[in-house]
Amino acid sequence: MKPLTDSAAVAPGVFSIVEPDGSPARAVDPPLSDEETIEALRWMRLSRAVDERALSLQRQGKLGTFPPVHGQEAAVVGTAMALDPSRDWIVPQYRELPAMLRHGYPLERYLLALKGDPLGSAIPEDVRVLPMQIALAAQLPHAAGLAWGLRRRGLDGVVMAYIGEGACSEGDFHEACNLAGVMRAPLVVVVQNNGWAISTPRERQSAGDTIACRAQGYGFAGVVADGNDVQATYHCAQEAVARCRDGGGPTILELMTYRMGPHTTADDPSRYVDAEVLDEWRRQDPIERAVAYLAARGGFDDEAEREMAEWVDATIDEAWAQASARSAPGPERIFEQVYASEPARLAAQRAGAIGRAGG
Amino acid sequence: MPQLNLVEAVRDTLAQEMRRDERVMVLGQDVGTLGGVFRATDGLVDEFGTERVVDTPLAESAIVGSSLGLAVAGLVPVAEIQFMGFLHQAFHQLGPQLGRIRYRSGGRFEMPVTIRTPFGGGARTPEHHADALEAQLANCPGLKLAMPSDPVEAKGLLAAAIRDPDPVIYCEPLRGYRRGRVDVPEDDYVIPFGSARALRSGGDVTLVGWSSCVAVALEAADELARDGIEASVLDLRTLVPLDVDGIREAVAETGRAVVVGESPYTAGFAAEVVATAQEEAFYTLQAPIARVAGYDTPYPPAGVEDWYLPSRDRVVAAVKTLLEA
User: How far apart are CA A118 and CA B307, in angstroms?
Assistant: First the structure.
C-alpha cells in the first residue's frame, strides 16, 4: 500500500480498511492481527459498558455528570494501541477513557472522579497520562511542550494529544500546532471529529474542508481517516507515531466519527440531532464493525465472546467495588496538593474547615 | 406579573431588549438551536432569526473580541460565555481590550457590550464550571460588573447592562438559576448600577453579599434572629460601580460587619469591601470586619464542594465571634 502520509499533503477522501459490514474496504492486509483486533475489541467493549454502567449510576444519583465515549470507541482505542505505555504519553481531552485505561490510569479513579472525589484525577506515578482536560484545547500547548521536552532530553517518546473538532476553533489549537511544527515536536494531534460540539454542528465550526488540512499551514502531515474503523485508526496512528520517532515532526490525524450519545449526561441531543442521521451512524457502529470483521475471519467464536463479556463485567464490578469501599471525602481533602509547601494562611484555613466540620 | 425563576427572567429580558432595540444581538456557544445549555436563550432564534441569535464556533476569545468589533460596527452584542471558568480563555480580550477601547480611542468607541456568564458553585458541576472570578474582573478598569441575586434583580440589572454604553460582565448565579419563581415586572424595568439594596435592617451586625451569597446572608440572618441577634443585609448588586455610600451607611448602622463572597479568600472581592468599609466607617467600627469566603485552593471537586462554599453556619459563626470580641 502506498503510504498516505509521506508528504504534508492531505490524503484525498477518508481512509478506511474495513467496511461497516466487516468486509475489506481495500486490498491491503489489516494492520492488527486477529489477536490484536480482539484486544482492541476488548477495550472498546469495556468503554461501552462503562458508559452504560455510569449512566445507570448517574441516573440513580450515585455519580455526577459525565461525557460518554459511545460511538467513538474505535477512534480512541485504535490510536492508543499505537502507543507504548512505557515511553509514550497521552494528553487527553475528556472523551478518551479507554485510551487512558490502556495506558494504565485505573478505572477506579475514573469512577471516583465521577463521584466528585479529589482522588479521581490523581495520576499514578508510573502512568504517562495527563489529567482529563475540560477547558477545551488547553491541553494542546501542554502536549506540544511535553513533546518538545522529550525530544530535548533525547528520549524517544511520542505524545498523543486528543481534541474534538469543536475545540479546534480555540486559539490554543493554532498556537500549539504552530509551535509543535517549528520545534518538530513528536506530537500526534488526534482530532475526534464527532460532528458536534454540544449542539453546534461541524459545519458551524469552520468553513474549511477538513481540520487536518490546516496541517499544511503548520508544515507537517495531516491525515483524515475513518474513525469508526479500528484498523484504519490504528494504521494511521502507527504511521504518525513512527514518523514522530524518526524525527519527522507532528501529525494532525482527523478521525471521522459520530457522537452517538449526548455531549454529557446533562445534555438532551433530541433537541438538535437528526434521528435519521443518528440511525445511519448506528449502522456504522465501530464495535459491530470489529465483531463482523472478526466473525468473517472465524477469529471470534461464542466462547471468546462470552469470556470477553465476563471480563468486562468483572473489571467494572471490581473498580466500582473499590471506588465504593472508599469513605466519603472530608473537608481536609480540599487542601491537598495545592502547594508542595503549604503557606501558613492556607494551613490555618484547613484547620478552621476541619474544626467546623468536627464541631 | 409573571412568575419567573432567574434563568427565565434572563431569557424574557433578552427578548424584551431585542424587541426594543433591533441593534441588540445574542451570540455564543449553543445559544441558538439549543437555546443555551441552561435555556437562557430558549426560543430567541425562533423569534429573531439566526442573524440576531448566533451560534458561534467554540472560541471564547473570538466571542469577546468580536463583540468589541460588532459594537464598533454599531451593534449591541450580548455574548454568552457558557461558564465563567471558560472566561479565562477570553481574558486578554476582556481587561486589556474590551475594558480599554474607550480609553485608548480617546472616547471614539462606545462599548455597549454585555458578556453574560453563569458562575459559582454548589451545582455539582465538573471542573472549571464553578469558579467565581469576580475579583479578577473587578481588577480590570473599564469593565462593569453586575451580580444579580434573584429574578427581579436579574431583569433590572440585565436591562441596565444592555443599555449601558460601557462593557458589562453580567454574572448569573448558577445555583440560583432555578431556586424559585417570583413575581417579575412585566414592563420595562431597569435597576441603576451602583445602588446597593438593603434587604433587611437590624442593629447588631451587617452582612454584605452579592449574587448567590445574598441568599446565604439572608439564611444566616434568619438563624441569628432565633438567637435574638438582629442582622442587616446589604446586596451590593454591582461590584463596579461600587456603592461606597451604601457600604458606609450599612456598616455604620451596626458597627460590625461580615462580608460573604465565594471566590478564594486572598484578594477576593470581599477584601475590597472590607478595605472600603474601614476607609469609610472606621470610627463607627466596634470589631474588625470579618470575611466568609472560599479557601485559597482551586475550586474543589463536587464531593467536597459543600465544605468549601460559604454557608449559613459559617456566617453565623463569624457573627458570633465578632459579637464576642
Answer: 13
